[in-house]
Amino acid sequence: MNHYYRAAAFIAAILLTGALSCGTSVPDSPSIPRNPERPDKASGSFSFLVCGDIHWCDEDFYDLDAMLEEKPGDWRQITKTYSPVTRANWEDFVSVMKDRLEAEPEIGCIVQLGDMSEGLANTPGGAAEIAEKVVDVLTDADFGVPVLLAKGNHDITGVGDAYRKEARAAFTGYVSPYISAQVGTNVEDANYVYRTGDVLFVVLDAYNRTLDQTEFMRKALEESDAKYKFVCMHEPAVPATERCWHYLKNSPERRPEFLKAIAENKAVFLCGHLHRYSVLRRNTEWGPVVQVMVNSVTDLKRKVTPSYELGLKDYGAGLVEWKPDYSPSNREWRLETLTAEAEYVDYYNMTNLPGYALISINGKTGDIMLRYYPAWSDEPYDEVNLTELLNGK
Q1: Do 230 and 268 touch, CB atoms closer than 8 A?
Q2: Buried-most residue among 116, 209, 278, 388 (CB within 10 A)?
Q3: If you classify domain 45-390 with CATH, what class do you get?
Q4: How many Å apart are CA 296 and CA 134, to the nearest integer?
Q5: Tens-place pLDDT, residues 295-316
Q6: CB-CB neighbours of 294 under 10 Å
Q7: pTM for this model (two decimals)
Q8: 231: phi then psi, degrees, rounded to nearest 5
């Protein structure tokens, strides 16, 4: 690893303690190379790239014999999917990102929505090695713009309680200082705010049980006078697939306040977790929640067309019927939950096509436009005017 970078990041984390609480701005870390001409401010526009789950993986970090015995499903994913895909695709995907950066001078940052790594360490010190390597590959990518990371469940996962504890400590010890250096404020774990110009990013930690994520988000959104606001979290706020996974699904009494904070502040909610691309609008009494889910788990076939495409007519019970063999044990709960959600959802699409999103704010019209690109294509698969969705059109 670049030890100068690591030292600078840790020193920055120490020196910047308290910066968030006192509201002071902090200069960019000198250890992070930046392109001073980016974003192009002459146009008054601003864009950013959004990546979903990536699951960077190297099978050399694991005891594969133990993994096969204890977690055969994870062994298959590591050895047959994520490690081969990382070897084949990671450097090329970085090149795709850098080509897009070169083509779009208004791009000012990259948002990665969690599960940057496969995690699942099963050796002593393995979690630290994985976290250190992930910081290494991101540093080597040298994007020239800040990279905002959300925490994903795989980023803090190990096999067994001891290795899970190590994984959480490794994220705090390696990834959090990297984030701190990227955004110029002290990030102790994975809750933070980043503002550039008139654009605010509020990054939430779906796995922090000691901090009220709703209150953190509400306060950050309400106290900011930024014109454009984005909330970034690994887990979706609104169920978007047949799995029905979403934040606070086990605490439904807390969910209205979470949705209220997003809707009242007209923030766009960005998420990953389910390895799908989806855009939906979920109406509430406080306004609409517009959610964008991004999938960046590439495959060896490098497909540029989706295997399927679902629309509004499929949302609700139709998602459960679409995958009838998935998880029969909670089928009734999923039917009930998705049927209830369908009463409030009036815009929906979903596909499994891996890629990345380019979100652009037009400096003249103020419109927020989403373009979703397959990972291996220069032509967008989908284009959505997010401002129109926010305004109920």
Answers
A1: yes
A2: 116
A3: alpha beta
A4: 16
A5: 999 999 999 999 999 999 999 9
A6: 28
A7: 0.91
A8: -105, 130
